[in-house]
Amino acid sequence: xxxxxxxxxxxxxxxxxxxxxxxxxxxxxxxxxxxxxxxxxxxxxxxxxxxxxxxxxxxxxxxxxxxxxxxxxxxxxxxxxxxxxxxxxxxxxxxxxxxxxxxxxxxxxxxxxxxxxxxxxxxxxxxxxxxxxxxxxxxxxxxxxxxxxxxxxxxxxxxxxxxxxxxxxxxxxxxxxx
Length: 178
Fold this sequence. Notes:
Layout: H1 2-9, E1 12-15, E2 20-24, E3 29-31, E4 34-37, E5 43-51, E6 58-64, E7 67-70, E8 78-80, E9 87-89, E10 98-108, E11 110-123, E12 130-134, E13 147-151, E14 163-164, E15 167-168
Parallel strand pairs: 2-11
Antiparallel strand pairs: 1-4, 3-9, 5-6, 5-10, 6-7, 8-9, 10-11, 12-13, 14-15
Main location: cytoplasm
Protein name: HECA2 protein
Keywords: Cytoplasm, Disulfide bond, Glycoprotein, Immunoglobulin domain, Membrane, Signal, Transmembrane, Transmembrane helix
C-alpha cells in the first residue's frame, strides 16, 4: 500500500522560483508557480492563502477548473489566471508582507495534493538623502569639528556610506561615525 501511495504523490509536482521573494512597495509582484501532473485530471483546484506573521492563514482566492473564486475583500488586489497557478499582487503594500501558501488539488484516479510556501518581503525605495551640517555655515577654520548628519524619510534596509572624492571614508583620527 505504501508504494502505491508514494507513486500517486509523486504524480503532482509543484515548483516555486524561491521561498523568499522581495517586492517593491507600490509595484506589482508576480509569484510564479508551476505544477506538473502526469495523469488524467478531471478537476484541478488551486487555492492561495495569506499568512501574516503570527496569525492564521486567510483565504485569498482560488479556482476550480479555471473558474476563479476570490475573497471579495481582496478581489481587486490579487489575480489568478488558471490553469496557471501563479498569483499577481497589485499594488504591493507593506501590509502584504508575510507567507503566501499555494495548494493544488488534482482529482483524477483519486485525489492528490501539493503545497508550497513563499515568503514575501516588501522593500520601500530609499528617498533622496538630506545632509545637515553643524555648524550650519559648514565653515571650520583649522580648529574645531564639523558634524554632517545624513537622513532619509523612507526606505527599508537603509545603509549609509560616506565618501570623499569618490573614495570610501573609514573611521580614524579625523573621522568618527555614529
